[in-house]
Amino acid sequence: PPTELTPIALGDSSALAVGDPVMAVGNPLGLASTVTTGIVSALNRPVTTGDQSTQFGQQSDPVYTNAIQTNAAINPGNSGGALVNADGQLVGINSSIATAGSNSGNIGIGFAIPVNEAKAIADQLIEKGSATHAYLGVSLRDGEGKDGTATRAGALVAQVSPGTPAATAGLKDGDLIIGIKGVGVESMDSLIAHIRAEKVGNTVTLKVLRNGAAQDISVTLAAKPAS
Fold first, then answer.
1. How many CB atoms within 10 Å of residue 151?
2. d(Cα 65, Cα 189) in Å, to the nearest integer?
3. DSSP secondary structure letter of residue 10
4. Gap between the Cα atoms of 124 and 61, Å rounded
């Protein structure tokens, strides 16, 4: 490889806090080596990419990510570029923006894939040539449930597939999952993104509302079966 290229130092995206300064590097609208600045606006923001066709005409599944939200300007051409912290370390991979319409540009809401998640996938690709994602084994939809006098939003279990980690752990149809590993879950997308970020074989604790009462359920995640 060219000797003048220097690998970027990797940071720790789990150490980020809301308000931390960040910089986005990329080629927005073809303008090479553009740097924009901002802060971490939010963490664990559920972002979903829809079904897409590959260059070979195959249909890919939606991808769910608990992204870093930033107000550093991100525009078409920034995707795949670096989001770095104040020490110049890579903390995210710029991926997408929210817009006010199909013809709108940056409105200060950009998203980046946390580097810890990207590195975990890259390590698998280097070692095995493919990546395996963790699997819970439930069908989900957005839902709400009562937690005492409060109404909580979460991921509602519509169906538990037999023989899956969810079934083994005792999850039931109608359970409302409102947390994972001590982090709140308010939607189906959020839970899927959290599961996707875990390693196969990890044991996670889910906070579940069942019949109006909260309980913790530990689940050991398996590899997602081939579709």
1. 9
2. 8
3. B
4. 19
Does 175 score more than 80 pLDDT?
yes
Instruction: Look at residue 149 and tell me if it is in a domain.
Output: yes
Those residues with Cβ within 8 angstroms of residue 89's Cβ, 6 or more apart along the chain or in another chain:
8, 9, 10, 11
CB 76 within 8 A of CB 70: no
- Give the chain's mean pLDDT: 90
Instruction: Domain count for the chain, please give it.
Output: 2
Report pLDDT digits (tens) over 125-153: 999 998 889 999 999 999 999 888 889 99
Alpha-carbon span 227 to 103, nearest angstrom: 36
* 123 backbone dihedrals φ, ψ, rounded to 5°: -60, -40
CA angle centred on 206, ends 200 and 207, rounded to 5°: 170
Under a CB-based contact definition with an 8 Å cutoff, are residues 222 and 164 in contact?
A: yes
Q: Is residue 101 part of a domain?
A: yes
Convert the pLDDT of each residue in 62-117 to its tens digit. Answer: 778 899 999 999 988 888 999 999 999 999 999 988 877 666 667 889 999 999 99
- Domain residues for the domain of 183 are 134-223
